[in-house]
Amino acid sequence: MRRALLSLIAFLPAAAFADDSAVLADIDARYDDTAAVARQLWEWAEVGYKEEKSSALLQSKLDAAGFDIRKGVAGIPTAFIAEYGKGGPVIAILGEFDALPGINQDDVPTREPIEGKAAGQACGHNLFGAGSLTAVLAIRDWLEETGTPGRIRFYGTPAEEGGSGKVYMVRAGLFDDVDIALHWHADDENSAAARTSLANRSAKFRFHGQSAHAAGAPHRARSALDGVEAFNMMVNLMREHVPQDARIHYVITQGGLAPNVVPDFAEVFYYVRHPEAEGVEKIWTRVEDAARGAALGTGTEVEWEVIHGNNPLLINETLATMMDEKLREVGGVTYTPAERKFATKIRESFDGDVPSLESAEEIKPYSRSLGYGSTDVGDVSYAAPTVGLRTATWAPGTSAHSWQAVAASGMSIGYKGAQVAAKTLTLAAIELYTNPDLRDAARAEFEEARGEDYEYSSLLGDREPPLDYRD
């Protein structure tokens, strides 16, 4: 009888050990702090590996709460780990904070760029950092009040946008002793569905030629821009002959300054994506061959530098179904009249049909699917069992990497979505601290999914962090 009772206790949810309503009320009381941190990160909008102020702000909040902090980990000045607690399982919560270059917007529902501002939180990473911070502070209080053995870690992870900051942290072994890793992301809906991502790799291809007067002596020149354009044409012809789920995109970052000067240098920045790392590798080999062919055909020389690379997310449905339950317990985002007015106005800038405003209050049905984005969380998911969620931080219908996302990320709609994430992450962590059978099941699924002979390999090779990739 006693053994049966102990077995039953092992499967009881965290609510049996602590009052979830008190935990959620604690996070509600932190709303102003969440909003203040999110707003400050939004205003700074620091790009990858340049997030000195943003990283320092998050560290200062954690230091004040008694966390032990390791700064500048994995050779990245803005990366850090903050830990609180002792013994028990190690639960990691990821926190991003980098912005996107080339896009900015005021916190208003009509297109109003901020003069002189070169970047914006178009993917909501200011909310990611602030919401995760609120979660770990609430979990710290819960560990302290209940005396539960366990450690909570905040991973300050810079340069997610094309810099693969987490990959270097994984490569350095910083997740090796983590039992479970939790993350979340800004979005226009609430979902904890098990959605994987595309593997990807990027590189800057640099062509070198010979300058001359474009009219007076063109025969003496070899155009580096011709090399770039020939390369792009060859890759564009490839698009017909790659798998349907593959993605290839590029921007010409340098192509010359004056039409009457044949450029002796040009650069193009490429991304290649595929659902599997092996698929990226196969397409990448062909892209490199195209670069060589373009250089040969235009009489130029080419070199390239791999900038970043991410493995696809490894789904863990044991954890995903648990996270889905916690998100449904928390619920979605309810707008005030002022927020409804903001969301209604911003939706006038969208094309086509968009979800109703009420969808921000709903939780999407649980499912398993392929997402077409890429993230360095994928590499974390091969180091430890990992699970995440998305919350409605933007007006329904908003796309990431848009001015509409920047606008909502800097006001209360975004802050409310971050609070939903903080609550859900906190409840999930409490469940994991108090339910060893759940942790064991997640670990078993993780080991099976990785495979018996798994060895970690990053898609960016052995290069050092590209701290200047946003220069």
UniProtKB/TrEMBL annotation:
It comes from the Bacteria. It holds the Pfam family Peptidase_M20. Coiled coil: none annotated. Residues 461-471 have a biased composition (Basic and acidic residues). Residues 202-293 form the Peptidase M20 dimerisation domain. Keywords: Hydrolase, Signal. InterPro entries: Amidohydrolase, Aminobenzoyl-glu_utiliz_pB, Bact_exopeptidase_dim_dom, Peptidase_M20, Peptidase_M20/M20A_hydrolases, Peptidase_M20_dimer. Gene3D superfamilies: 3.30.70.360, Zn peptidases (3.40.630.10). GO terms for molecular function: dipeptidase activity; para-aminobenzoyl-glutamate hydrolase activity. GO terms for cellular component: cytoplasm. Residues 450-471 are annotated as: Disordered. Residues 1-18 form the signal peptide. GO terms for biological process: folic acid catabolic process. PANTHER family: PEPTIDASE M20 (PTHR30575), XAA-ARG DIPEPTIDASE (PTHR30575:SF0). This is Amidohydrolase. It comes from Hyphococcus luteus.
